[in-house]
Amino acid sequence: MKAKPRGFTMVELVTVLVLLGILSVAIVPRMMSSADTAAPIFRADILSALRYAQKVSVSHRRLVCANIAAGSITLTIAQANPPAAGCNAALPSPDNSPYSSKDPAVTAANNIAGSTLFFQPNGDILDGNSALANGQITISGQAAIVIDGGGSRVE
After folding, report:
1. Which segments within the chain are labelled E, that is strand?
2. CB–CB of 113/128 below 8 Å?
3. pTM value?
4. Domain spanning 35-154: which superfamily?
5. Whether the Cβ atoms of residue 49 and residue 117 lie closer than 8 Å to each other
6. Terminal CA-to-CA distance of the chain, rounded, Å?
7. Which of 34, 85, 93, 133 could form a cystine bridge with 99, CB 3.0-4.6 A?
8. In the chain, what are the domain boundaries?
């Protein structure tokens, strides 16, 4: 009795490779696309930056400024209380680098007066007109971030 050969035939191997090639052409570009993940990540960055600014302003008893541009957010802090020259120093992030987040592929816009939010040591959030900031920051394709200056809420 002759032993049955084990293994795959050349036709089976080529068929599997062709199927893998077709699947990789269809799936890999979708997995590598950052367009689907950029906006939610940037929204999370802005939300965490605003909450961080609020907590630092209260805990350090200093004015903290959040400058929101179309594709970036930058945090600065006043060096003294009361602030003589506004926010004049970069606010360090927990890893001690200046706190900023950028994503030029995503746009953020707000309906709050001015592009800077001022986090007061008492918890209030003011807009560019020194009034309580009440409004929204919108990121393309994402739920809006709601700012309630009098209630000291960022959601």
Report:
1. 64-69, 72-77, 89-90, 100-102, 108-110, 116-119, 125-126, 134-139, 145-148, 153-154
2. yes
3. 0.75
4. minor pseudopilin epsh domain (3.55.40.10)
5. no
6. 77
7. 93
8. 35-154
